[in-house]
Amino acid sequence: MYLSTIGRPKTADGPPTAEGGRSDRQRRRRLALVSGNVVALGTVSLITDVSAEMVSAVLPLYLVLGLQLSPLAYGMIDGIYTGATAVLRIVGGYLADRVRARKLMAGIGYALSAVAKLGLLVAGRSMGAIGFVIAVDRMGKGIRTAPRDALITASSPPEALGRAFGVHRTMDAIGAFLGPLVALAVLAAAGQSYDAVFVASFCLATLAVVVLVLFVRDHPGSAPERALPVPVPDRALPVPRREPVSVREALTLLRARPVRRLTAAAGLLGLATIGDGFVYLLLQRREELSVVWFPLLAVGTSLGYLLLAAPLGMLADRFGRLPVMVGGYVALTVTYLLLFGPIGGWPLLGLALALYGLFYAATDGILMALAGPVLPERLRATGIALIQTGQALAYLVSSVLFGLAWQQWGPAVASRLAAACVAVAVVATGCLLATEPALSRRRVTS
Prior knowledge:
Radius of gyration: 23 Å
Structural class: mainly alpha
Oligomer: single chain
CATH architecture: Up-down Bundle
Number of strands: 0
Distance between the termini: 30 Å
Number of domains: 1
CATH superfamily: MFS general substrate transporter like domains
Number of helices: 18
Shape: globular
CATH class: Mainly Alpha
């Protein structure tokens, strides 16, 4: 039947050919769903986040109440928790582009984080050892994040990137939602033994690496379907080899104005953002919550995140990614103001955690969806890593400064200063990105 379509051109005013109709149907199908590779990567992130949140949900309470750290000391540890990823994000992204093995680099990062969970068993109460183990865990995250996001971008059409990242971040948030609950269950079953939490966390992190190895493809678009049979010559023509990505070529990314502006905006927004642990500690102190309920604060944020990530991703694809991301930071500003605002009790906890989940859902994947289309495919992992590095370095500074402000002027003044900084950063981000056509257009078309 297909022989009747050979040689039949598609004209501008005539009906589409069978091949054109098939192409349109395939395009609509791609837009309606996300690829299996995105789902597989989402599964890896889900399991990894269960593992990570088992530890991070109880870590702030353990450090501040258990080890009696000052706000400044906790700010330094919290900054390490994210800032340690900064340089390695670029290294991981560059190596993934250079060796064309994004899956391998992501796997190395996930494996490092898994091994770090065992390190917590021997760290004990030593702050130096705890800081080192946390740094190794975050190094693993730094190595894997850019190659993983580059794989998501390569597995999705440009006009559906918001949806793809939204689905991935939703699965990621499901893991973050389940992690504290699993930690509480393990603690209850093991007689409040933190070692049992660390061992269970390691086992889950190892499972995530196995899922990555078995189900994620490194080159999801390398084998396109053929609509018609093509004769194969007796001797295949030589395929030109692509030169590896060089450091000089990677540095050319900063010559592109959209990349420079995105990197600057990510740095500004990171500088205005304080860590989750600070937010939860402030809520715990304001409402005098029992330590038993503390891990459930992260559960509330994750619930809002997982419910909103995919819908906001689709909303961003339809109406514009920049407005959705700016709206997320407006929600963050309100969250900081609520920490010492007029509302108290359960209404405060519910509203603050819902807005905090909205902030993550509207910003985390959307920033990467903004970056993907303006980065060349050959340097995509490096470009994503560059933007994430700017944000991570700024976050390291903000954690230390917020801890210092808390220690000097008290938590109420520190939280209001943080809200003011976010408001300023949002205005600056709008000025940087809204005037860039490649970043501010309402929709991305193929």
